[in-house]
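Dear Dr. H.,

I hope your travels went smoothly. While you were away I took the liberty of generating a structure for the chain from your last submission, since the lab meeting agenda had it listed for discussion. I wanted you to have the full record in hand beforehand rather than looking at slides cold. The sequence, exactly as received, is reproduced here:
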Amino acid sequence: MNREQYRNPTNADRPYMIQHAGQNFETVIKELARAGFGGVVMNCEWHTSQNDTNQYLEEKSDFEDLDRRIEIAGAENFGVWLYDEKGYPSGSADGLTLASHPEYEAKGLAQLIADGDFTLPDIYDKIVYACKRDGTPVAFDTRHAKGAELVYAVRTAFEGSHAEKCGWGPRRYPNLMSHEAVRAFIDCTYEKYFAELKHFSEFQAPLTDEPSLMSGYVNLPAPMTDALVAWEDSLPDVYLQTNGVSLYPTLPAVFSEDESVHIEKIRFWETVGNMVCSAYFEQIADWCTARGLPFSGHCLLEECIDEHVPLYGKLVQCLKAFTWPGVDILTGDPKDYEGKEFPYYMAAQYVGGAARMTGRTQNVMVEICPIQRGQRDYTFEEERGTMNKIFFSGINHINSYLTASRLGDNFKEYAAHAARVTHVLRSAVWDGRIGMYYPIETVQGVFRPSRLGVNCGAYTGREAQTCMKSINDLTLELRREALDSTVVDAQWIREANISDGCLSANGLIIGTLILPNALYLPKDVSDKLAEWQKHGGHLIFTDGAPEGFSVCPDPIAAAKAFNPPDMIVEGVETGSVWINAWLCEGKRIWYILNTAAVPQTLTLRREGAFTIWNNNTGEITECHTVTVDGYSSIFAVSE
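The corresponding predicted structure, in token form, is as follows:
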């Protein structure tokens, strides 16, 4: 940490403005610099005007103009990112991806009820399996089945999907489980930028925006005719290679509405997750790495674990494929950020956990997009408080849709505050020692495909809802007890070493693991945890546990007993201060948030000397009693 850079933040630590349009760019950049920004996210001209006949990514002059804008940004010492789509979700390239290959369009698999001989309706492409209710196959071809009770048919996944129901507008979408389809997106977007721009190497990263599987309905309160699960024609072969059994006889279990955990569902969604992660996230990351770029962006509806299944198979695996993982947050209200119905804080928590599990914590992105609610805009204090809560999860870079004009003269202070927190967190390693298990296997195992949107009332299973409530509530309850946790998944546990009573991998160390309603654990993970427990590891199961483990009656008390806080804050309202611990250059650092709307005077107590770093002013003092503004933060740094 550099004290001078903390007092007077550099552009590299400041928020970047997402600036899709290129008009009057010289003036715009100077205004952004005066406001306190340090960079821009940009793209080729979108040509959205009805009078504009030019085409996205098809005009040489657009690349020349973008080169000019990169030069202007560089002259102002601004960093630059590349936005990889026209609107969102990323993947379609405004139709270019599918233009020459309509067969790459996203597909879904439906379960249709039959009564004997069956003819497939025209809206479906083909039958891939037909059977009795117990899975016993019957004779079928692509359009007909004989003696069938269940028919499994493929159709295009567009109506009711995010490709149709997003805020940008309807647009056909490729199948992200297909390497060939994603390669087509790379060819017409990433390769085009790389070939046409003189200054391509000056991009710090591309930002991909909300790519997802389209088989899960979104923003859809009215039911569709059938429920879909993700499909790609190579899925049965991949499933067979991975699991050693055929996918087809397991399909009745995949669509089952039974509330118990089904291993067939887990295997299905694990296979889907592996395929989308490999085809989209890893393929683009590999392309970027080969050209010296990190890959960044964010996914769709990260907030709720039950939505991770239909949209990604297992979201956290996809997040871990990013070089610089990211999230978007659509509120500027610190109270709304902790909302029960839409828990934004969990979106940041999954992304922060992905970064820590991979050791890629130097640049963890948030796309700030505080959508105004009603007539009142968010205040400067509210935006500052929301930003601090986002950063608490390990995020440390802002790409912003929040304009300076919305905060007026206060934006400079907002930008400087964010930059100071960024400067400290980028050089620090989280040291909270409490892991929160990502119980995606349980959620996969009970997931029920729905005819409704996943964010509009779709019922995904009782145990999935329990998982979500448990992980969400425990995350907040720990924070109100001046503790913190990070998400860890099965793969991280597999990779981790057991030493001194802890699990450790990629710089992340865990001594206590909370498992929220983890009814199912892969056997190798279960065995590893049992072995770790024998060597001093602390396991805390809540709500439910697999065979051989027991549920803890008071998980928060147990976590606190195992991890007593080493920084005590006195003189404040209980639960109104969040604290988490970090290590940097041999020093222990505490990030301390006043989550109340009013100022609070904090008295800090611990063994050993420490200084207070004020994120509002940049001042560094040795006084251990400090007044922290409402919705503001400080660092305590051991000396």
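Two observations you may find useful: The first helix runs from residue 3 to 7. The radius of gyration is 25 Å.

With kind regards,
E. W.
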